[in-house]
Specification:
Blueprint: H1 6-21, E1 29-34, E2 37-40, H2 41-57, E3 62-65, E4 79-86, H3 88-92, E5 99-106, E6 109-117, E7 122-127, E8 132-134, E9 137-138, E10 150-153, H4 163-174, E11 179-181, H5 186-194, E12 200-206, H6 208-220, E13 224-226, E14 240-245, H7 247-253
Parallel strand pairs: 3-4, 10-11, 10-12
Antiparallel strand pairs: 1-2, 4-5, 5-6, 6-7, 7-8, 8-9, 12-14, 13-14
Length: 258
């Protein structure tokens, strides 16, 4: 039997399900906690196919995923953190900027992350200690100052109590940068920072599956991931605020300890 690395299994599985969701239409939409917190049958289909493909190679695998009611153990030997469609609202409305995201953790430590944008056919990935890639080419965060950078942000739409704080931060950075963008997928936003398209990304609260894979890619591209208090983020099942960028632009933004 030919040995196939798990990273390759993940890569192939993500691309295979991505082919099906890129042109998807006519899907059923279900509200979870509110009209902003939605799920489609494609979210569940992608999740099922990824879990099946990984389990075939790693029968002992544990899974933490947005659409799984019972979450696995983050500190297990092989844990996979999955967001089957990050940017579901964009997906539902037929807009771009949604992605499939998978992170592989071993005994609570990051090992490999992959984020795939099926519409753009862009595959971001990174293995810890090996650098970050976009479609096989090495990527790196931008070293441009704030004044020459685009800033991306998320609105934390499930948490309306954070709205005023979020837009206070947007106003704070808007006067310092070239422009701001709200794109709708945390995983892709962090990857856009990782490959130098944007200088900074922030959001007041994210779940682990929103950023787990992208965080690995960001760090391997020379970037940093901290919370709004300026502390480095260590993945847990708890929600956290997130700032992504290079060390200098994070400091220049002035949004830490807001």
């Amino acid at each position: 039997m030919t040995y196939i690395p798990v990273t390759e299994i993940i890569h192939e599985a993500i691309e295979s399900v991505g082919i099906h969701i890129a042109p998807a239409s006519g899907f059923q939409i279900t509200e979870k906690t509110s009209s902003r917190d939605l799920v489609t049958q494609y979210d569940r289909l992608v999740q099922e196919k990824l879990i099946a493909a990984i389990t075939e190679r790693k029968p002992d695998a544990q899974f933490i995923s947005e659409e799984l009611e019972k979450k696995g153990d983050l500190n297990a030997e092989n844990t996979f953190i999955i967001d089957p469609i990050d940017g579901t609202t964009n997906f539902i409305h037929g807009m771009g900027n949604f992605a499939i995201s998978v992170a592989w953790y071993k005994y609570g430590e990051p090992f490999y992350g992959a984020v795939y944008d099926p519409l753009a056919d862009e595959f971001f990935e990174a293995k810890v200690g090996m650098g970050a890639l976009l479609n096989g080419m090495r990527i790196h965060v931008s070293n441009a100052p704030m004044r020459d950078s685009i800033v991306l942000f998320g609105t934390s739409p499930y948490n309306p109590e954070l709205t005023d704080m979020t837009f206070d931060l947007v106003k704070k950075v808007f006067g310092k940068c070239q422009d701001v963008r709200q794109m709708g997928s945390a995983a892709l936003d962090i990857c856009h920072v990782a490959c130098g398209r944007a200088g900074l990304y922030f959001e007041a609260t994210l779940s682990p599956w929103d950023y787990a894979a992208a965080a690995i890619i960001l760090k391997e591209s020379g970037g940093e991931l901290v919370n709004l208090s300026g502390h480095e983020i260590k993945l847990s099942l708890e929600k956290t605020s997130v700032i992504a960028g290079n060390k200098n632009i994070i400091a220049e933004s002035g949004i830490i300890n807001h």
